[in-house]
Amino acid sequence: MINIDERKILKNLFSYILLIVLAVVILVPFFIGIWTSFLPTADILKGNYFSTNISLTNYLDAFTKTPILRYLGNTVVVSTLIMLAHLLFCSMSAYAFVFLDFKYKKFFFALFMVTMMLPGEAAIIPNFQTVKALGLLDHYSAMVVPALTSAFGTFMLRQAFLQTPKELKEAADIEGLNHFQIFWKVILPYNRISLITLGAYSFLGAWNSYLWPILVTFSNESRVIQNGLKQLQSEETFNNWGMIQASAAIIVIPTILVLFIGQHYFKSGLNEGAVK
Amino acid sequence: MLKTSTTNVVPEKKVEAKNKTKFRLTANDKYYASIFAGPSLFLLGLFTFYPMFRTLYISMFLTNTFGNTTLFVGLENYVKLVTSPDFVSSMWVTLVYVVGVTFFTIAMGLLLANLASQKLPGIAIFRTLYSVTMGVSVSVAAIFWLFIFNPSAGFFTLLTKLLHLPTVNWLSNPTMAMWAIIITTVWMHLGFVFLVFLGAIESVPTTLYEAADVEGVSKHYQFFHITLPMISPTLFFISTITIIGSFKSFGLIDLITKGGPTNATNMLVYRIYNDAFFGGNYAKSSAEAIILTIIIAFFTYLQFKFLEKKVNY
Amino acid sequence: MSKYKKFALPLIILLAILVVVFTGKAFSTKTAAAKDNRTEVVFWHEMGGPAEKSLMKVVDGFNKSQTKYRVVPKYQGSYDAAIQKILQTHGTSTSPAVFQAFDISAAQMMHSKFTTPVQKFIDADNFDVSKISPVARSFYSDKGKQQAMPFNTSQTVLYYNASLLEKYGITPPPVSPTYSDITRVAKEIYEKSNHQVKGMTVQIYGWLLEQAMANAGVSLTNNNDGHTGIPTKATINNKAAKEFFEWIRENQKNGDFISYGSGAMAGTNQTTSFLNGKLGIYMQSSASMSQLNKKNKNKLGITYFPHPDGQKANGVAIGGAALWISNDKPKDVQQGAFEFIKYSLKPEVQAQWQKDTGYLALNKDSQQTKILKDLYKKHPEARVPSQQLQEAVPNNFNSGILMEGMQKTRQIEQFAMESIYNGGDIVKALKDADKKIDENLTTTNRANGYH
């Protein structure tokens, strides 16, 4: 018995070592990034990582000397608008595909599916011209309007709506609710977890988009954070690494916090996906 | 990548068959349908379908300095691309990147998920730590790693100096630059992939492992003969979205290498952007965009098809 | 009631879309400076970092100097990225009234017909341009008509670490060095520092190759670099380019040459190494000078861009950018743009600009200002770029390349440089570059209907 216990302990020890080593490997870029964000650039450039000149100067510089707060604000507004739009338009079209009967329904649904096969990256030239023709360049709407809906979101919510229990629908029928009421009072509340999941994905997707905003924004008033960092980097002739790292940290810390808080929802969303 | 993540996760047919009921079938449905589905259809038409046809159209012309189509040339742009060593090498580079990223993301993701699925005290901490890169956006990943790859003060340079190894100038050596981009991409995607794999591994019935334990089968064997086959649908799902995501990679390249050195990381989407918005050659860029579309459509289609069949069920 | 309700949702949807569209606009425009009766002149520029700060001084100075106009500066990132933005936004409300576009985009801008030639305003205003450097002016004029007004003009110069040379007792390079002069210094730095300091680098940047060719007196394309007709063929595979690369290769063999690659950070890494005393010599725009002086613990040495052995230097082309006036804005806005241009050329403004950045003051009277006199007293080497400019006799080889698609050409040049640096055959790389540029030229000329 003792033998087995010892073997087990040894095995666990080995597991822990491996777990810790891998955690270190994954976290090293974070540690270095965040640690150097507290150091003066001069020390960083000398490779003096163990400098004791720790300060918040870089953060102060990032906040006061760069438009990073403006970039963050822009990104929050744009991402929130896109998220809300996705929740509305995707749930509406999903509702139509599940609960309504209309001509060419199959065809239209197929169209939605085909849309998912078309990469947005390939559409940048005509979309740029469209947005230009609409006079939206360099406005939030240049980023929001083309992203108001999502075929993926529609598909995802359709799958969720299909699983709404019969009883709910029957009850709604008996009460004589119309489609708007059913949609608003029955279907949406019942599927709120799926909606939250979609919201999170949409928000993150918008938050992370890089190529499109770079094409349609021309000033700090509308520039988003993903492009903003590139801007900071290109503006600094003499890489002020301390401040650049601080800016990166300013962006990544809130996202990670949000992620940890929202982890539960992500997981449930993913588990839905983790084929059963 | 996140955006398309759960795309086909929910097996469609199964659900549909389970409870297919409708509310009321009234004549009003058409009216409601136009309100409910109309906006999305309109928007997708304007910003997804129309651009595709427009891109196809532009790709068969020459475009002038202002990006206007001037001369119809049929498939000339495509022929030029396919016969240009530059473009062919770009396709190779893209392929190497896609294969590299997909392989390492999956291998690392599986390794981490398998480790973190053990029932050990404190394992929750590791699960959280491993998923942390999910919160990292392109630009942050690029900046963190740019510093690590920095030839004068970067972490790798210090490390190699400490170990008295020859220093590698990551970003000016074509092979190393590719590795730099692959490493950064894998790192960035790892958190998400890890979480999905973890979920899949956890949903494998424990009885299977218990039975294997009784028979004295090694953990190693269990992983390859129980875990892997059981999570094969997830494996397939992750592979396809990683492949699709890597084909569309842009931000990291723009931030880290700008396609260089010697076009060693000049991948498809970067070319599309570069040819149109730097070179001003909209026609060439459009032809490249169509080629990208064909590739992405193929892999998405594959994803749809296989998931319908539900791998290994 | 039910009728009314039926329309509620479509209305809400419509409203939602409208709100999104218009709040988006409002949000982004609201931040512009408080409204008054001034005419706004949107100014797109590509001056990052410290140069942006000194440019802001110019803009603020202008805005304070009068009450009719307000120049609103908007930073557009790199020169490269700005060109397509300018071309693509023309005619929209987003487009600038006055913009800064760099040297190699001159042909594109002229052909675009998107700008009002400044000559029109010069004539209307009887503005005396004789004080403005003729070399710089001629770069941006077409058949004697001024198309744009040069603003930030630089020279490519060679920087060296003078303290380092002193320390090791190395004779500095002469005023107008040959390749072998530089090879000698670079080699000595490398050897005498026990291989701790690299001798030299030439950044993978097409501009430097172009300058090497200009300085050797050869052209990059036929039709004299586009000065006597639309270019149809590239001629990079020439003796001067070969000599230039053989020179680099020789230094590579000696071990004193280092390449910082072509990635996003190559330029900054090069500068950082130089400032940290790990690199002896490099070539860069004179616009880096004030920065190099400010942050440098070592004494900065500056001399002319090197030229091939056995011949006289032909002089390099000016670099930098000019200010163009868009023709899609109302008359008063365009007039405001010109007023800003006039202001930017004042002797004191140009003198301060040179002092702050290292770009050359274009107004001859600037040299008499106290600002520059003080600068030269403190940093005698700051005269070098202006002297290099004055010594050059303008000809077709050193007056820039008037060709569309120069940005693509630069990328092709850079590709050739990279493959040579990585050990590739020089002639093959140059031939390859010619072929690629030719292909682009053919397509561009066909698409635009140039014959």
Automatic annotation (TrEMBL), chain A:
One of its GO terms (cellular component) is plasma membrane. SUPFAM superfamilies: MetI-like. GO terms for biological process: transmembrane transport. Pfam families: BPD_transp_1. InterPro entries: MetI-like, MetI-like_sf. Belongs to the binding-protein-dependent transport system permease family. This is Carbohydrate ABC transporter permease. It comes from Companilactobacillus suantsaicola.
From TrEMBL, chain B:
Keywords: Cell membrane, Membrane, Transmembrane, Transmembrane helix, Transport. One of its GO terms (cellular component) is plasma membrane. One of its GO terms (biological process) is transmembrane transport. It is a multi-pass membrane protein. The keyword Zinc does not apply. It is found in: Cell membrane. Gene3D superfamilies: MetI-like (1.10.3720.10). It comes from the Bacteria. The chain crosses the membrane at residues 31-49, 95-116, 128-148, 176-201, 222-245, 289-307. Pfam families: BPD_transp_1 (PF00528). InterPro entries: ABC_transporter_permease, MetI-like, MetI-like_sf. Residues 91-303 form the ABC transmembrane type-1 domain. Belongs to the binding-protein-dependent transport system permease family. This is Sugar ABC transporter permease.
TrEMBL record, chain C:
InterPro entries: Bact_solute-bd_prot1 (IPR050490), SBP (IPR006059), SBP_1_CS (IPR006061). GO terms for cellular component: cell envelope. GO terms for biological process: transmembrane transport. Its main location: other. It comes from the Bacteria. The keyword Nucleotidyltransferase does not apply. Keywords: Periplasm, Signal, Transport. It is found in: Cell envelope. Belongs to the bacterial solute-binding protein 1 family. This is ABC transporter substrate-binding protein. It comes from Companilactobacillus suantsaicola. The lineage of its organism: Bacteria, Bacillati, Bacillota, Bacilli, Lactobacillales.
